[in-house]
Write a structure and sequence with these properties.
The protein is α/β, with parallel strands linked by helices. The protein contains eight helices and twelve strands. Strands 2-1-3-4-5 form a five-stranded parallel beta sheet, with helices on both faces. A four-stranded antiparallel beta sheet has the order 6-7-8-9, with helices on one face. It has a three-stranded antiparallel beta sheet with strand order 10-12-11. Helix 2 packs parallel to helix 3. The chain is globular.
């Protein structure tokens, strides 16, 4: 059985040890780094053989934002979770905008940490398995084409770079065109019903998607807000 591999980047030794011990108990193989530079070096040395990365934001030298951005450029499908302090609200949003899939707020319990990593790991593996199957389906919506085989989105023939979470949101939108979807609907479909986090993660990902696909993100024509509920897709 192939081991589940996680890259952990945390400069505080006590927190890193806590994370590593609990992930190992949950069946993960863990590679640990004390700085952003070390994390990227280890990632490259091991040829990106990780499903999930946990990144602290406050790191010496290269901070967690920069590491997140570099990892996302190297690998669109790796799951990235950022670790933030309870008061660092803008850092949570900033990390998600840089391409992270989720965040965990310190202090956190072992059960919460493992549950969040488990949920993200399942999504990464499911996406990879689907890529390996010879899917031929494409969903067309106006000027957009969503390819379910190679997990890509094109706008007027131009590739739109999406993270796996963004692709899953778009897949859900395309399967429910014109239908109002609540934040809870999107959260359960993309992050899973066992997700521990807050619904605001949906809003941040929608904001990021609008920046990528809308001609004018401040006046969206495709991802529309349904006030008091959530969002809907129109072509």
């Amino acid at each position: 059985m192939q081991l589940k591999r996680v890259l952990v980047c945390e400069d505080e030794a006590s927190i890193r040890e806590f994370v590593v011990i609990n992930l190992k108990r949950a069946g993960y193989e863990v590679v640990e780094a004390g700085s952003g530079e070390d994390a990227l070096r280890l990632y490259d040395e091991q040829q990106g053989d990780f499903e999930v990365a946990l990144l602290d934001i406050m790191l010496p030298g290269m901070d967690g934002f920069a590491v997140c951005r570099e990892l996302r450029e190297r690998n669109e499908s790796i799951g990235i979770i950022i670790l933030t302090a309870r008061t660092q609200e803008m850092e949570k949003v900033g990390g998600l905008m840089m391409g992270a899939d989720d965040y965990v707020t310190k202090p956190f319990s072992p059960s919460e940490l493992v549950a969040r990593v488990d949920a993200l790991h399942r999504r990464v593996i499911a996406a990879r398995e689907r890529e390996a199957v010879n899917y031929l389906e494409k969903i067309v919506s106006g000027e957009f084409v969503l390819n379910l085989r190679n997990r890509t989105l094109k706008k007027q023939g131009q590739l739109v770079e999406l993270t796996q979470v963004e692709f899953q949101i778009m897949e859900y939108f395309f399967a429910n065109q014109g239908k109002a979807l609540s934040r809870t609907d999107i959260l359960n479909r993309v992050w899973g019903e066992e997700y521990f986090g807050e619904e605001k993660i949906v809003d941040v990902n929608i904001r990021r998607l609008r920046m990528k696909i809308e001609n004018d993100p401040s006046e969206p024509r495709h991802i529309l807000t349904v006030w008091g509920l959530g969002y809907k897709w129109v072509d």
